[in-house]
Each structure stands twice: as C-alpha cells, then as structure tokens.
Amino acid sequence: MTHKPIRRIYDTDLQDLLQEIRGGSSQERRTALREFDWASGDTRKLGWSMAQKGLDLGTAMIVFFNARPERYNYLRKDRLPAEARLRCQVLDAIHRRAVSGFYLPDPDEGLGDVFARILDWVERQEEDRARGRQGRWVFDPALFTPITLKAVQAEREKEDMEGAAPGQDTPFDRTILSDNARRGRPTLWRELLGPILG
Fold first, then answer.
1. How many domains, in total, are found in the chain?
2. Which of 1, 16, 80, 141 is a good FRET partner for 122, with 20 to 30 A between their CA atoms?
3. Does residue 165 share a domain with residue 130?
C-alpha cells in the first residue's frame, strides 16, 4: 500500500489560502461550500474553509451530508479505506464544531432544506441506540431545535401559567425569602466549616 506524500503548507501558502477562502461575500462562500465536490475537490482547502467564523449550521450540515457520511458511520477508524481517511477527518472536524456550537443557525434561513436530512439522521441514531449500537457521528437533537426569542418567550409563558389558577397571575412562593425558611437550613459557611469546627 503506497501513500501519497503529504503536501506541507508554508506561511506564504497559508496566507494565500486564507485570502482565497475569506474572499467574496458570505453568500458566495456559502454557495461554494454547499456545492463542494467531495469526489474531486481539495478536502484540505475545505477543512480550512469549514473552520472560518461566521459559517452557519445549515451550510455545515449540507457539506456534511454531501460527503455521504452514512458509508463510513459504522466503520472503525482503522478499517477505513486509505482514500476515505482525509474525508472522514474533515467530517470529524465538522461534527466536532457542530456539536460544540461553533456553527449557529442562520437567523434568516434557519436550517433551511437540510432540516429533513438532519431529522432522518437523528431518527436513525435513535434506532441505533435502541439496538445498542452507535455510529461515529452522533448529534444531540436539541442542537437543531430552533432557538428564537419568540420560542423562549412562549416557553416561559407556558411554564409561568402552569402554576397559576385560571384568571390569576402566576403565584410566587415568597416563603423562600423568609427568615423562618432560612433558619431551618445551615448557611454555606456552616456547611463548609462544620466538620472542622465540630
């Protein structure tokens, strides 16, 4: 088995690469990434492009799914074909950034048309969990739940109204602020220093 020599990136090459990656408008960069050809494209350049700030979650997931990750999801790293290793390294990096919150949903587009593919992936990983197996790239479904101000306000209103009687404001338990409630519990200092002081 022969391996291709690794092309080293030098400072001048890196500056040129970053200038090329960061050139153009954000929409042009998004479009170029969404149309990336995994079969013939430069995956090293893609890796650098995916590490740039400001890239949205929808675009990242489109790039992820365009690589057809299902082919490698259950293969151990040492069983990967040589030609798939670099692809999987880029997929690993995209996955790590996605689950860590590096990519955020676009405020105008959200996740767009990739949302159905995400749901399908999450459903399959839940089926895997029920069977007692796990793929290489596991996503938390909460990552893809839309977070909007309206959704947060609606959730807060729902929580507030669960404890209120019809036609009344939300009750507030003021006993937690009273001296009697505090007297029954030791203070933080008493908890921490109690074993020492006796």
1. 2
2. 80
3. no
Instruction: Report d(CA 168, CA 162) in Å as an integer.
Output: 11
Measure CA of the first residue to CA of the last residue in the chain; give whole Å.
71
170/109 same-domain check: no
Give the residue from 146, 174, 189 where a domain finishes: 146
One domain for residues 163 and 80: no
**Which range of residues forms the domain containing residue 182?**
152-197
The answer to whether position 3 is within a domain reads no
CB 111 within 8 A of CB 58: yes
Residues near 115 by Cβ (< 8 Å), separated by ≥ 6?
144
Q: Give tens-digit pLDDT for 85-108.
A: 999 999 999 999 999 999 988 888
User: Residue 12: what are its φ and ψ, rounded to 5°?
Assistant: -65, -40
What pTM was estimated for this model as a whole? 0.66
What is the C-alpha radius of gyration for the chain, rounded to an integer number of angstroms? 25
DSSP assigned state of 103: S
Burial of 110 (0-12, 13-18, 19+ CB in 10 A): middle
166: helix, strand or coil: coil
